[in-house]
Amino acid sequence: MSDTTTDAGVDALARRLDDAQTSRTETPSIEAGQPLDVDTAYRVQKALVGLRTGRGERVVGVKLGFTSKAKMAQMGVSDVIVGRLTDAMQVRDGGTTDLAGYIHPKAEPEVAYRLARDVDLDDPDEDILSAVDAVAPAIEIIDSRYLDFKFTYADVVADNTSAAGFAVGPWSPMRSAADLDVRLAVGDEENAGTTAAILGDPEQALHALLDMCRRRRIPLKAGYVVLAGAATAALPLGEAEARCTVEGLGEVSLKGVRK
Ligand code: 0L1
Ligand code: MG
Questions:
Q1: Residue 87 falls inside a structural domain
Q2: Residue 5: is its pLDDT beyond 80?
Q3: Cα–Cα distance for residue pair 93/252, rounded to 1 Å
Q4: Chain segment 39-77, per-residue pLDDT in tens
Q5: The CATH number of the domain where 86 resides is what?
């Protein structure tokens, strides 16, 4: 058990999650063994991402999770979660990703936004929509470091919201992505939905992001990719192509391979 009242205890949990990721070995839920409050979980997440940047990775974006009513109800929560994306997680549109780098990856169909300028977290009048210059279809690869994808809200925050990979399709100038049909196909499996599953409208996700980033002091910088949340349930990613199509925005794909 780690003493999370100290930085050393927070660092120990970050190392445990980092080891799970780098060795591709699941770890039990932290909260199954000790209490973990959400404030501490965000400190663990920051330390965990710090281990990645310490190895040379760069933070290139942020992501939201729990943006659908179904997922919130399943977790018994009413708040979204925010995680960080690094350059090492990015997969080229149409490119491949080595499945050996994951534990039990799943693909989610998402809408991505691009920030054209820094967002001022301390300006009460900040308008995050005016900071966004482009929108695109995206695939997120989630890969919980926890055993069997079983975790509590605080657990998944600590685990950088299961962030593991992402691909972004062609950028279009910023416009509404409300009520667009979305399809995710992975091999023979397919899920269909609409962008309304993302907090009613993915633009609401941007407002929720600003609110969370203010509370958690997570910077929002020029050039960042923002993944707004999943439009359908995730599908397991195996040795197959994953393709996400968002009506009017186009499509994005990646392929899971064993090298
Ligand atoms: O929507 C998401 O990006 C999922 C966040 C984490 C929950 C999960 O791993 O299923
Ligand atoms: Mg997601």
A1: yes
A2: no
A3: 6
A4: 999 999 999 999 999 999 999 999 999 998 878 877 888
A5: 3.90.850.10
